[in-house]
């Protein structure tokens, strides 16, 4: 079917003055002004709205996002008392043997950082198991009942009898808590998240799964749920398991990476740093991988024709990953490595030397501008963890973009909300002025950048003749500058010619 969209503003480098677009099946067939529009089987009036490429979110945990959208949201809690009150209220709707899942507390934003204890959470929840992930998702508060569910947990790294668990102890309780979610609830959460993404003008997401953050069943279900034929954005999967490129391919992943952890998170003081945490002297976080492990994983990726990648936030973790990539380049040749376009997820703390290595090896930076909006600057969580001077160097988007590091923007949902216009705005209004990006460059990183971060030559992110008919229509704005100010409502999301969302 040939569908003509006319009467608006089409944001396209191919025709900056276009007001109309013709989609023929799954492809864009024509761009131009209304007066010159060809005949079509159907006409859609843009009513003065803005048509752009659909967004790509390059780092998402779909099931957890859906559970969060339907579950206990603690992002607004500002004290231990408010967390306990929210738990008490939510527990009233659960069966006696139910598990209460919540997410999003952030004690760095509280006037008093004192946390509720495992005992207090258990009392508030009527004795039920409680799992409340910190906003970074790299640690959690749990109730006494969940602490007692695994007698071996007391010996695990990161265990704390207060109920704030990190590192291995956190992984154990997370498996216990998420293991309580059945297949039907899991699939419902996946649909909830993907429909929500479509309503925000997101045409594709990169699902980051792995044995330490989801499960093989969950990962396969998310991939199967994606695509316009199911009324959802496209889903491209990254499986983060060390030395498991063959398994990643069998699971349907496009890459053996994503959340393959080289370190943890700044919020949980588990990001691996080159210098001590400012608020925990003597600690530099946790490095989970060695240079040899990075090298061997990537050699396995190359042997199976897979793109590789790692979660690395701290400068020490990023240095380990880049050293491993360097060893692969020494063996296979630098052009082979560059062609693979390996990825680093988050890439928050890096200096000129590390950025230069990313350029040299053609590494993609999959980054989350909302991290700076929420925690950057001189007075928030980064400043507390790192000190003001180091905090102001975090997330150097402009420094990476200006020297040619490919950027792909994402949310890391549910760590931060799916909010693509908010991501563009955060990159443009970075707390550190010299790290700010221009509007068009930031928009490109959240659209075309997501496609260029994928392996091979997957087309997308452009509004031009011959490109996939994947775009979004925005209400009440006539250009990008107005859109980042207004956060316009998405009137329609189209993926490969199929409308997956319509107001």
Question: What can you see in these coordinates?
Answer:
This protein is an alpha/beta fold and 503 residues long. The protein is 35% helix and 20% strand. The protein has 20 helices and 22 strands. The strands form five sheets. Strands 2-6-20-21-22 form a five-stranded mixed β-sheet, covered by helices on one side. Strands 8-9-10-11-12 form a five-stranded mixed β-sheet, with helices on both faces. The protein has a five-stranded parallel β-sheet with strand order 15-16-17-18-19. The mean pLDDT is 95.
Low-confidence stretches: none
Provide the residue-averaged pLDDT: 95
Distance between the termini: 21 Å
Instruction: Report the sheet with the most strands, covering strand number, pairing sense and barrel closure.
Output: 5 strands, mixed
**Which word captures the global form?**
globular
Q: Strand order across the biggest sheet? A: 2-6-20-21-22
Total of helices: 20
Strand content: 15-25%
Question: Which percent range fits the helix content?
Answer: 25-40%
Strand segment tally: 22
Instruction: Supply the helix-strand structural class.
Output: alpha/beta
CA radius of gyration: 23 Å
Features of the shown structure:
503 residues; alpha/beta; five-stranded mixed sheet; 20 helices; 22 strands; 35% helix; 20% strand; Amidohydrolase YtcJ; Metal-dep_hydrolase_composite; Metal_Hydrolase; Amidohydro_3; hydrolase activity, acting on carbon-nitrogen (but not peptide) bonds
How do you describe this structure in short?
By secondary structure, the chain is α/β, with parallel strands linked by helices. Helix 9 packs across helix 10.
């Amino acid at each position: 079917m040939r569908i003509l969209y006319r009467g608006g503003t089409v944001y396209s480098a191919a025709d900056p003055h276009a007001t109309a677009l013709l989609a023929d099946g799954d492809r864009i067939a024509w761009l131009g002004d209304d007066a010159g529009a060809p005949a079509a089987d159907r006409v859609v009036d843009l009513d003065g709205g803005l048509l752009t490429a659909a967004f790509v979110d390059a780092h998402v945990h779909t099931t957890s996002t859906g559970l969060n959208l339907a579950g206990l949201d603690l992002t607004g809690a500002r004290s231990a008392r408010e967390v306990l009150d929210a738990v008490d209220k939510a527990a009233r709707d659960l069966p006696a043997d139910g598990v209460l899942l919540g997410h999003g507390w952030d004690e760095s934003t509280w006037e008093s950082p004192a946390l509720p204890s495992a005992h207090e959470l258990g009392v508030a929840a009527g004795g039920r198991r409680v799992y409340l992930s910190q906003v970074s998702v790299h640690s959690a508060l749990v109730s006494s009942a969940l602490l007692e569910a695994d007698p071996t947990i007391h010996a695990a790294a990161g265990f704390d009898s207060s109920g704030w668990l990190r590192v291995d102890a956190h992984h154990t309780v997370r498996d216990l808590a998420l293991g309580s979610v059945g297949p039907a609830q899991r699939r419902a959460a996946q649909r909830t998240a993907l429909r929500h993404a479509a309503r925000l003008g997101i045409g594709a997401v990169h699902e980051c799964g792995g044995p330490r953050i989801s499960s093989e069943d969950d990962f396969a279900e998310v991939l199967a749920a994606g695509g316009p034929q199911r009324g959802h954005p496209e889903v491209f999967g990254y499986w983060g398991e060390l030395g498991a490129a063959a398994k990643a391919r069998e699971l349907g992943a496009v890459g053996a990476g994503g959340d393959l952890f080289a370190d943890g998170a700044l919020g949980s003081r588990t990001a691996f740093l080159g210098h001590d945490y400012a608020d925990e002297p003597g600690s530099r976080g946790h490095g989970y991988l060695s240079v040899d492990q990075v090298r061997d994983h990537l050699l396995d990726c190359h042997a199976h024709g897979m793109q590789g990648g790692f979660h690395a936030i701290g400068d020490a973790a990023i240095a380990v990953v880049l050293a491993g990539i360097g060893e692969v380049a020494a063996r296979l040749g630098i052009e082979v490595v560059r062609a693979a376009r390996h990825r680093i997820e988050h890439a928050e703390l890096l200096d000129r030397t590390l950025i230069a290595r990313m350029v040299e090896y053609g590494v993609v930076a999959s980054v989350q501008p909302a991290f700076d909006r929420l925690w950057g600057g001189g007075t928030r969580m980064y400043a507390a963890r790192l000190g003001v001077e180091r905090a102001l160097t975090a997330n150097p988007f402009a420094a990476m973009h200006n020297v040619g590091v490919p950027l792909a923007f994402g949310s890391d949902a549910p760590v931060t909300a799916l909010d693509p216009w908010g991501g563009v705005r955060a990159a443009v209004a970075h707390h550190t002025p010299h790290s700010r990006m221009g509007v068009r460059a930031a928009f490109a990183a959240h659209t075309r950048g997501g496609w260029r971060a994928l392996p091979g030559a997957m087309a997308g992110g452009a509004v031009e003749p011959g490109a996939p008919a994947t775009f979004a229509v925005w209400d009440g704005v006539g250009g990008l500058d107005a859109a980042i100010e207004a956060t316009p409502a998405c009137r329609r999301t189209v993926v490969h010619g199929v409308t997956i969302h319509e107001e």
